[in-house]
From TrEMBL:
One of its GO terms (molecular function) is hydrolase activity. This is Hydrolase. The keyword Hydrolase applies. It comes from the Bacteria. The keyword Hydrolase applies. The lineage of its organism: Bacteria, Bacillati, Bacillota, Bacilli, Bacillales. Keywords: Hydrolase. InterPro entries: HAD-like_sf (IPR036412), HAD_2 (IPR041492), PGP-like_dom2 (IPR023198). It holds the Pfam family HAD_2.
Amino acid sequence: MLKYVIFDFDGTLANSKDVFISAWNSLADKHNYRKINRSELDTLRRLPILERVKRLDFPIFKAPLIIQIFTVIIGNFRGTLSYILV
């Protein structure tokens, strides 16, 4: 049973940008949100959340449901991350 979850939002533990982009774009295909590419990821990360969801055509009220779906999609990428050794 999983006891702990580590969130690595800045790529310190794992180089996860490509996995995140692929997972989001998979979700975007299914729900008609705007896809993202690697070159715009840093710009999106700097935006306030309301501006970010607006640019991605993502209705903020769907966030709780989409987070669950996104977690499943990310799980499908397990084993594809390159970890940063420290």
